[in-house]
Write a structure and sequence with these properties.
Shape: globular
Number of helices: 11
CATH topology of the largest domain: Rossmann fold
Strand content: 15-25%
Structural class: alpha/beta
CATH class of the largest domain: Alpha Beta
Helix content: 40-55%
Strand order of the largest sheet: 6-7-8-3-9-10
Oligomer: single chain
CATH architecture of the largest domain: 3-Layer(aba) Sandwich
Distance between the termini: 48 Å
Number of strands: 10
CATH superfamily of the largest domain: P-loop containing nucleotide triphosphate hydrolases
Length: 265
């Protein structure tokens, strides 16, 4: 699902205009990015023009778009004060009014997508590890089969192996299930590595958007507003400025080291 904001205003944002391309992993970077996720999820009131797949959001069709978007919060909130995981799934389905033909089959399918075994349903939420809780949040979100998945700081608190696991899930959702994924992160390194398209905020306005690599390398907003670039981008630009050596736009540090070796050689 493509989402287009045109001159949208809310309590926090002014004159927002940007596009979330369909079927891409989109990054949001800058101040109050998590609040922008709330706005995109239609959890906050706004004025202006918003299109979903070129259909304008109106009061009479609002609910059609709302059900196609799910926001996965940074921290898990136990909505029902229930510790048993299976019971929590059941309450969540009822609370969200999700219509399913085979509830148990759908729950097990959602768990499978995120790499959790069905025997976790017998456990209690309070016994889960940090990474298991995040995977549980993802599984709950998939029950409604949303077209757009919004993720608030999905990599925070993870080591490299667990971060790679989350990335594999995100890429699978995009490639196999054709979902549109929107990620807010305060860490530009993650956004550079894991997103295709980038929206940058400064003082509650969108100051630049475009392909992630092009934005981080070519836009002057980072130096203008003193916004941090990814470490690898900073290094490549520094080498170009100080040594007049134009290195390729690498994402993997190992590839960059090879480039440096051959240039020095």
């Amino acid at each position: 699902m493509e989402i287009k904001f045109s001159h949208v205003n809310s309590k926090r944002f002014t004159d927002l205009s940007f596009i979330i391309p369909k079927g891409e992993v989109v990054g949001i970077y800058g101040d109050n990015g998590e609040k922008l996720l709330k706005l995109i999820s239609l959890d906050e009131d706004s004025r202006g023009i918003i299109y979903f797949n070129k259909i304008r959001k109106l009061r009479r069709n609002y609910y059609l778009f709302k059900k196609d978007i799910v926001l996965i919060e940074r921290d898990f909130v136990n909505l029902f004060n229930i510790d048993n995981i299976y019971e929590y799934f059941i309450c969540y389905i009822r609370y969200k009014k999700i219509e399913l033909n085979d509830v148990d089959d759908k729950i097990k399918g959602a768990l499978k997508i995120v790499g959790l075994k069905s025997d976790i349903l017998e456990r209690r939420i309070s016994t889960l590890t940090f990474s298991e809780v995040k995977l549980l949040q993802l599984a709950l979100a998939f029950l409604s089969n949303p077209k757009v998945i919004l993720l608030d700081e999905p990599f925070r608190g993870f080591d490299l192996n667990n971060r790679k696991k989350i990335v594999r899930i995100i890429n699978r959702l995009k490639d196999k299930f054709l979902k549109t994924i929107v990620i807010y992160s305060s860490n530009p390194n993650y956004l550079y590595q894991y997103t295709n398209y980038l929206i940058v905020l400064y003082e509650n306005k969108v100051v630049v958007e475009g392909k992630t690599s092009d934005v981080f390398f070519d836009s002057d907003v980072f130096s203008l507003y003193k916004i941090r670039r990814p470490d690898i981008v900073d290094f490549i630009l520094l080498v170009k400025d100080k040594k007049s050596i134009k290195l390729p736009r690498r994402i993997d540090v190992k590839d960059l080291i090879k480039d440096i070796y051959w240039n020095v050689k």
